Amino acid sequence: MATSPAAAPPRRVVICGGGVVGACTAYFLSTHAASPTVPTLVEKSSPACAASGKAGGFLALDWCDKTPALSALARASFALHRRLAATLDGGSAYGFRPVHTLSICLPTDPDPAAAAASPLLPAWVDPAASAAPPRELGTTDTTAQVHPGFFTKAVLAASGAEVVIGEAERVVVRDGRVAGVVVRGRGEVDADAVVLALGPWSGRFEMVREVFDVSGLKAHSIVLRPREPENITPHALFLSYQPEPGAKMLDPEVYPRPTGEVYICGMTKDEEVPDDPETITGEPDSIAMLHKIAGRVSGQLKREEGAEVVAEQACYLPCTDDGLPVIGEMPGVKGCYVATGHSCWGILNAPATGAALAELILDGDAKIVDLAPFSPARFLKKKSKRGV
Fold first, then answer.
1. Whole-angstrom Cα distance, residue 17 to residue 72?
2. Which end of the chain, N or C, is more open, meaning fewer C-beta atoms within 10 Å of its C-beta?
3. CA distance from start to end of the chain
């Protein structure tokens, strides 16, 4: 009995969203070993204009190990980050480097007279910044960093994708299969496969909204250039800080970058995502708290002692109801794929997400990581149990 030939892989792929997930998907589509496919990428504003340009860029091998599905995704991605850095000259192009990672408890009322330096504490961190001996959370074998905006743009450029600046309004579906994307001001762009990778904006598409919810968590950050940037060593700091007795504990993070700049983040709030990413600004009180924390960590990071303010900003992290990203083909729409909901691990997990999607689209199955736990179809089961 003769077997029918396998269906040809899609050749016209349109990716909606110019963030890190869309960029990585474009890269792995275009570098696919058997069926390299250069996609079209549609972005409303500019590549890496939202969280992909304003995140910390921290990478960890094993910090997701408590969740088996996420562990596989993170470990595969961590390995791909190293491979990409070797291929794309990541050290020069986007600040890829291994880092030491420490946990530090900031005192509510620092006492410089009682401070004792710890051998683990970097020289640029004030001894009074540590209320207890710091703990090692990661080594240069298990933690690393990239500049997220530079990484996104480098990967996208290496993909060769055609970038169309315009708003994707809707996915065109005919007979249950994707036929294209309607782009405002450009009309319909034909497609055999469409990837929706718009972070928290993915929920603006009705076909996504009907299946699952993706919300935005507003995250604030500042970027400082210290007085003596050459003295800032590659130590990522995860802090615990109670601003005053009885106040809520905060968990700020500090990431020095090879450029000499230092990125500080950690103030978040649930808030409706605005239509235009270019209109996002930080809350003054959150920005002020980050400056206060920066000054507590190091005199090098105090504005009043000469630290330059490079950026004060905010972005929205895409979050799902069950805390797992959504990666896979949309139920009932052949050829429409979604990748969103990575929360704070978007920069880390984008490479394996993009590689898996490229395999799914071009080969019909993802081999680099099992996508079953991330399938959007999982929400259909939950909705049916609730009687929705």
1. 24
2. N
3. 45
CA–CA gap between residue 157 and residue 159 (Å, rounded): 5
186-189's contacts with Cβ under 8 Å and 24+ in sequence apart are 189/14, 189/40, 189/42, 189/164
Alpha carbon separation from 329 to 82, 176, 193, 194, 208 (Å, rounded): 28, 12, 10, 10, 11
246 and 196: one domain?
Answer: no
Q: pLDDT tens for residues 171-184?
A: 999 999 999 999 99
pLDDT of residue 106: 93
Q: What is the mean pLDDT of the chain?
A: 93
Q: Is the pLDDT score of 115 beyond 90?
A: no
User: Among 318, 351, 369, where does a domain finish?
Assistant: 318
Q: Are residues 172 and 277 in the same domain?
A: no
With the CA atoms of 190, 349, 53 and 39 taken in that order, what torsion angle do they form, in degrees rounded to the nearest 10? -20
Q: Is 0.85 topped by the overall pTM?
A: yes
Alpha carbon 268 to its chain centroid, in Å, reads 15
Structurally, how many domains does the chain consist of?
Answer: 2
Residues of the domain holding 122: 99-138+214-318
CA distance 97 to 90: 8
Residue 137 pLDDT greater than 90, yes or no: yes
CATH of the domain at 47: 3.50.50.60
Question: Judging by DSSP bridges, how do beta strands 177-183 and 187-190 pair with one another?
Answer: antiparallel
Let me know whether 311 and 328 are in one domain: no
On whether residue 128 sits in a domain, the answer given is yes
For the beta carbon of residue 36, count every other beta carbon within 10 angstroms: 13
Helix axes 346-363, 20-30, angle to 10 degrees: 40
Decide: 267 and 289 in contact? Cβ < 8 Å.
Answer: yes
Examine the domain organization and report whether 72 and 170 are in the same domain. Answer: yes
